[in-house]
Amino acid sequence: MKRISTYLLILLFLIATTYFLVFNQKSATMNAVEMAFAVQDTASITKIEVVSRTKKTLTLEKKAVGQWRVNDFYKASPELVSVLLETIKQLSVKFPVGNSAYESVMQQLEKPIKVVKIYTDSPTEPFKEYAIGGVISSGNGTFMLLKGSEQPYVVNIKGLDGNVLPRFSNQLEAWRDRLIFNYAADDIAKIEATYELNPERSFALSVGESNNYTVTSASEKVDLEKKRLNKPVAATYLNSFKRLYSEAYENDYPKIDSIRNSKAFCRLKITDKNGKIKQLN
Questions:
Q1: Exposure string for 226-236, b = 16+ CB within 10 A, e = fewer
Q2: Helices (H), 91-170
Q3: pTM for this one?
Q4: How far apart are CA 69 and CA 165, in angstroms?
């Protein structure tokens, strides 16, 4: 009798252990899927869509390695795209939303601030999609919910003092590349600077063989033939067109038409050694 009882206890222990292992593993796997906001292989990402609460969509699409377009119109800022990809890679769950806040957070995520869709192999079916809600009271986390999941989480990047919401902007001008000129001095054949308000200051700097510089004036009032060219200054000027950025774009400025109709302070025209011309008015 004692032997039967011992066997029975062992059997019950094995059943309980098997039940625990099977169902605990199932629960852990389910949670891991619900928590998988990050995409480790960001090189596989071909397109990212950020949809606002008002259904305004911003699309970043990879055209080649390191080359992205925003809304298929502007060249996207490589620096900002790099930050976004690194953000997508490093997204980490801080903790699940608890029972006390569950309903209010889920209501918030029914009309999320942003919806992010990440594409890899398929151009029409997202590889990953999640809703982004508000920021927690400390500011160091954002409510997020994967599509198909019923458990929201507070998500952030480890070590980030802040939250990731601003990195998912869907403002077109914010993503537009601000690079204006990017010339190495050795690639420039000629620079023409035209000052409409002070034409006597207008000039052209040409680069010949062996960095032989020539400066000519656009004004008949200025005679440069008798003046000695300062070569270090000319060299410095040529080097100033490497990675030259604008501060921002002001397309919504209320007096933009007035600016367009006024005379420019300076018009720049750069010709490279392949004969390609780029102008800034």
A1: eeeeeeeebee
A2: 99-110
A3: 0.76
A4: 21
